[in-house]
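Note to self: user wants both folds in one dump. Writing first protein now.
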Amino acid sequence: MTEIALQTLGLVRRVEGVISHTLVNGIDLSVAKGEFLAITGPSGSGKSSLLYLLGLLDAPTEGEIIICGQATSKLSEIERADVRLTKCGFVFQFHFLLPEFTALENVLLPMRAAGTMSAKDMNERAMMLLTSLGLGEQTAKRPNQLSGGQRQRVALARALANRPEIIVADEPTGNLDTASTEQVFGILRDIADNGQTVVVVTHDAALAARADRRIHIVDGKIHETTLGGDRKAAVTAATGAAE
């Protein structure tokens, strides 16, 4: 049986105020280990809000998020931070690399925060990741010395540093040219094919169509689910998704 990496039950995110606004409205979702899930929807639909909840960057108003079998609704903020650090890797539209650090130093940051590896092992892993992403000659350069595509690949290496089960990406190709977009998407596809779960918010319908599954969000709810790719049968069996 295919393992479930990420699950939500009755997920709600509501912003209270003079006029309350519901960003995510009762979403039930299961994402299989090794699945590439694309989340699409119009601006303001709640897709990024959902993604931030899935990565524990925001807390739900109601409902549960289960990551690798661990319920998270009752965790303290310190415990949530530990799950984020060890179970999730993050990639955003803007790379958020620290400008004063080299590519290598940026990739080392999450490993240093986790504190589970020796300095030698951390350095070797960071070099391996950068080299595997075609950046072996760029490790000593700072972000302003790299192209947009190179910076996003450094961000991907940083996301992979702690061997997370889940990669969460918010418009990772939104600021890239066509060639860099294809390269970054190919890397994300390879990550999923190698057994890690990838969840991506994107406006690019052509890229979303190449994911294992696409969910389209409207008004904070799943409006439509589309399956695709070679892993269609496995995803259907694991998550109960239907066309």
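First done. Writing the second protein, which came from a different request thread.
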Amino acid sequence: MHFNLKYLINKFEFLIIINKFRYMKNLILASSSSVHGSEFLEYLKPDLLQFFNQTKELLFFPYARPSGVSYDAYTELVAKFFMPLGIKVRGIHKASNACKAISNASAIFIGGGNTFVLVAKLYEMGLMDELKKVISNGTPYLGTSAGSNICGVSMNTTNDMPIVMPDSFETLGIIPYNINAHFIESDKNSTHRGETRETRIKEYHEFHHYPVIGLKEGSWLRVTSDKIILKGGLKAFLFQKDKDVLSCDTNTIF
């Protein structure tokens, strides 16, 4: 009988990741913080009201700095949204002990921006392990874009430019997938000759074997202890090494 050793090793590694996933998870991982025609987080508001219904204070990570915005300005934007919901927002950049702030947080939000910048800062501050610990133990977590990317096995399928270099591309591994946020389907009638998202993910799978979820803007993953469910009313796409792409409808369980 012939055994494919490489396949067995890859399968074993994936099962290890699956086993790590079995904790008291409670996350919303959104592709984006806003959608066309809507203000910041407004499209998620009905779900966030329920998700954070026991939350009085939220610890926000502004490290991804979209468009180079300052930590304070980014935190103010988030605070403006959550104030009418009765939730106070505290920026982690103001904490005297960031690791302790994470361990004491009643809920966490990591916003979008540049994933390289975000991951580099988390490693620089030595926050990855504590962040993974509290999320795995059930602290409610909201991620958008880059903040969702880091909950995958690695940041290798981000769309962002590598404007800084983090210590590692390995991320939190909260879910046993990678995420490609802001996913755009290929347009067969387009005259654009650059790589599509699908092409880039295929290139990723030439070197790595973890599956990738292509998540459109307006979609999110609702992650609980035993399920990852697609939400938002739009299709997502599951890319697996050496397999056809799967189109996934809303409420698909990954």
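Dump finished. Worth passing along: Helices lie at 5-21, 45-51, 71-82, 98-104, 115-124, 128-136, 146-149, 197-204.
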